């Protein structure tokens, strides 16, 4: 019996080529896109899931409240972790990470190497985190001073197939480290991206009391607590800890951030260790796009199957007359649905394999098509696909199996008003989803354009940023500046501790107006630069003067940005004095606010000190170059660098490219919106084309009668298109408020955003209307051109 069902089902699928193509194409695209998007979602939601204690690990986040302006920081003072572990029994284990500078340089023999993804770590690090060690003892790997853990990539690169344990690696500061363990490459979905870890025990000695100073920052502090109850109890003790170790005017507090929340819930946290901040909204968006596509493909099947039933009347009637029971007819039609679904599933597997490399480029992931990566996803989608096939087929099957054979064979066949209403509802649903996708694409594109066009308060174009990665270059930076400036291709040179678009940590300082004893301390960003920085970056000086270039006097002066002046309550900042740490500095100028970070973040208070200062060392050259001679400028910069330091390769980037990195996830979302909208609309139009074909075929005789009675081609076109146009209009009215809410919520991720207006929605409505009209026009125009003599011949 089953064999017979399948045989007839395959025959029907093969015979109705257009109908089958539309359904298979729609489902294949839907399943393919859903598979890829769900893979991305599963990877994002599995961040940091490799740690067995993930539910009990917390990051200590510092809170600074200044006059109602609350800021959150992923770094704490170095003593915080050890004292918490010592004072509170709820803390089972504590581990800290530090990153001193942005780059580590080291050598093996005469060969020099460099790495950014390095940290100094407490000896307890591998007791908190379960990063896998290939060789070495995780309990003792970081116990001894000058111990180093490297990942398998560095092990292979430095030592090939040799056992690296016990090998010596010399840092450019003279420290000789011994490899004690090799760590498996850290998974991409870890908020900590580590390639080299070094031990901490000698750090306090080296940095002169840094580790014991409560006014310093830079410690990423993680604690393990034994269950939620202990976490709640520990959180209640934080105020007592703050009161014991901090002065009241410090306005400092802490909260516990679960490891599970770090990837998605760190948007407002500054200076966290996370390699990339996820956006939870995108997870729901991508899941929604995948579900939209499957829904639209399923709607196509239901619409076309119920419409097609009008042309299978004789088949159904003959089967019923021959004794077929209702359940047998249902099984027959469900068999056809299942076959279409399974064919679509098989085709989608091949399509996923083909598209995966492009999807990796789009999402910046490294997925591989194998049973490990895709096994769970494809298994789940197999069940979903089969369910879609059966559920999509159940309604048409029940409708057709209930038809009376006598009425069918007399030609008085109708699926009833309910079926017509359902088809209209489903078409409206399809185009509602499609219009939402179109609006999302337009809004995302406009926001990306706004980001590109908005003034940042400085000019990021034609700037080469050269990293200072060695003591030799840092000691001779003045001479190097002069050498850089000798090139006719380089029009300006500046040095600074940080640059706008910074990926390294900014120095944090507490400051307040001198003489204001009752004033709360303000936590501010701090960078050092020379007298050429404002000119090279084309920053605007609103009041006062720039640094003079005299290191003696300039070291006692600072510039501040507008936000710092406002927060300090300075109406006339120039000439005022501020206290930073134990020192007093005179404000000699106010710089117009500029975006030091991405447009996701609001502009924070910023102090601009002279290059020689107590808070940061010089880390960058900024070279303004003539855009006509980019290659020549880079070549000159490399030549100068190599002249002064042959041991460390030059490391540089173009500042505008660095800024583009801030918006990769947003651009990724915009691209997925665009592709998703295109596929969604294509699948919806396939269904609309097929549905129009069946409906117009049903009305062929009506068209013939109207033509005989004098109806023009335009009259007939408007008559046949009116229903579809009204459905698109209704879809637009439903999609508009939904899209308004969703896209405003997305735009709220940006501190600076374009004003969402009516134009975006009207444009989407027009696009949807035109696409729908084009989809049905071929069938409509073809029907209006039919000769009424032929259509009415059998009447």
TrEMBL record:
GO cellular component terms attached to this protein's record: plasma membrane
Location in the cell: Cell membrane
Ranges for domain MacB-like periplasmic core: 20-238, 433-605
Protein's name in the database: Putative FtsX-related transmembrane transport protein
Transmembrane spans: 21-42, 281-302, 338-359, 379-400, 421-444, 672-696, 708-734, 754-776
Domain of life according to the entry: Bacteria
Keywords: Cell membrane, Membrane, Transmembrane, Transmembrane helix
Gene Ontology molecular functions: transmembrane transporter activity
Membrane-related topology note: Multi-pass membrane protein
């Amino acid at each position: 019996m089953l064999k017979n069902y399948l045989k007839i089902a395959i025959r029907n699928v093969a015979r109705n080529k257009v109908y089958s193509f539309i359904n298979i194409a729609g489902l294949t695209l839907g399943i393919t896109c859903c598979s890829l998007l769900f893979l991305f979602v599963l990877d994002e939601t599995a961040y940091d899931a490799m740690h067995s204690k993930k539910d009990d690990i917390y990051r200590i986040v510092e809170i600074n409240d200044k006059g109602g302006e609350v800021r959150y920081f992923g770094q704490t003072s170095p003593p915080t972790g050890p004292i918490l572990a010592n004072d509170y029994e709820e803390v089972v284990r504590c581990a800290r990470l530090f990153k001193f500078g942005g780059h580590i340089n080291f050598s093996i023999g005469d060969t020099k190497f460099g790495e950014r993804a390095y940290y100094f770590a407490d000896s307890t690090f591998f007791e908190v985190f379960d990063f896998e060690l290939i060789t070495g003892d995780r309990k003792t790997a970081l116990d001894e001073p000058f111990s180093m853990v490297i990942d398998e990539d560095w092990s292979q690169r430095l030592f090939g197939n040799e056992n690296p344990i016990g090998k010596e690696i010399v840092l450019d500061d003279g420290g000789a480290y011994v490899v004690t363990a090799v760590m498996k490459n850290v998974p991409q979905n870890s908020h900590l991206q580590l390639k080299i870890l070094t031990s901490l025990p000698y750090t306090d000695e080296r940095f002169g009391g840094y580790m014991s100073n409560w006014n310093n920052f830079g410690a990423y502090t993680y604690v393990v607590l034994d269950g939620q109850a202990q976490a709640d109890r520990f959180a209640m003790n934080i105020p007592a800890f703050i009161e014991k170790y901090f002065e009241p005017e410090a306005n400092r507090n802490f909260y516990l951030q679960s490891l599970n929340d770090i990837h998605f819930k760190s948007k407002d946290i500054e200076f966290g260790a996370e390699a990339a901040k996820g956006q939870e909204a995108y997870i729901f968006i991508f899941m929604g796009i995948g579900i939209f596509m499957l829904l639209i493909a399923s709607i196509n099947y239901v619409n076309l199957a119920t419409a097609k039933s009008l042309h299978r009347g004789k088949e159904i009637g003959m089967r019923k007359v021959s004794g077929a029971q209702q359940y047998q007819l249902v099984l027959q039609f469900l068999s056809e649905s299942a076959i279409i679904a399974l064919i679509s599933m098989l085709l989608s597997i091949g399509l996923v394999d083909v598209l995966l490399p492009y999807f990796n480029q789009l999402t910046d992931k490294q997925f591989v098509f194998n049973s490990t990566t895709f096994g769970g996803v494809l298994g789940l989608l197999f069940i979903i696909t089969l369910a879609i096939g059966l559920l999509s087929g159940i309604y048409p099957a029940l409708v057709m199996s209930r038809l009376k054979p006598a009425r069918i064979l007399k030609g008085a066949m109708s699926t009833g008003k309910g079926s017509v209403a359902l088809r209209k509802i489903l078409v409206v649903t399809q185009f509602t989803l499609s219009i939402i996708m179109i609006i999302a694409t337009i809004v995302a594109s406009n926001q990306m354009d706004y980001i590109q066009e908005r003034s940042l308060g400085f000019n990021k174009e034609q700037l080469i940023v050269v990293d200072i990665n060695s003591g030799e270059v840092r000691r001779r930076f003045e001479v190097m500046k002069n050498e850089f400036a000798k090139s006719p291709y380089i029009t300006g040179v500046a040095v600074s501790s940080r640059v706008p678009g910074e990926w390294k940590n900014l120095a944090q300082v507490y400051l307040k107006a001198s003489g204001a004893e009752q004033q709360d301390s303000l936590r501010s960003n701090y960078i050092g630069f020379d007298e050429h920085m404002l000119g090279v970056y084309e920053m605007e000086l609103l009041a006062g003067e720039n640094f003079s270039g005299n290191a003696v006097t300039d070291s006692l002066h600072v510039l501040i940005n507008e936000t710092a002046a406002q927060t300090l309550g300075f109406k006339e900042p120039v000439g005022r004095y501020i206290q930073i740490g134990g020192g007093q500095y005179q404000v000699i100028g106010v710089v117009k606010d500029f975006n030091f970070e991405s447009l996701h973040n609001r502009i924070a208070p910023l102090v601009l000190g002279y290059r020689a200062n107590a808070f940061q060392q010089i880390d960058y050259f900024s070279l303004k170059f003539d855009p006509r001679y980019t290659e020549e400028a880079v070549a000159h910069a490399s030549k100068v660098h190599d002249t002064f330091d042959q041991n460390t390769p030059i490391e540089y980037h173009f500042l505008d490219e660095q800024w583009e990195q801030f918006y990769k996830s947003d651009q990724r979302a915009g691209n997925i919106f665009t592709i998703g909208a295109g596929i969604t609309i294509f699948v919806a139009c396939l269904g609309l084309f097929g549905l129009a074909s069946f409906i117009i075929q049903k009305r062929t005789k009506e068209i013939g009668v109207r033509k005989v009675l004098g109806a023009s081609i335009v009259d007939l076109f408007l008559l046949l298109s009116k229903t579809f146009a009204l459905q698109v209009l209704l879809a637009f009215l439903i999609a508009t408020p939904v899209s308004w809410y969703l896209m405003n919520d997305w735009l709220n991720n940006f501190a600076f955003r374009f004003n969402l207006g009516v134009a975006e929605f009207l444009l989407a409505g027009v696009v949807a209307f035109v696409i729908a009209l084009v989809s049905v026009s071929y069938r409509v125009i073809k029907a209006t051109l039919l000769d009424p003599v032929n259509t009415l011949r059998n009447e």
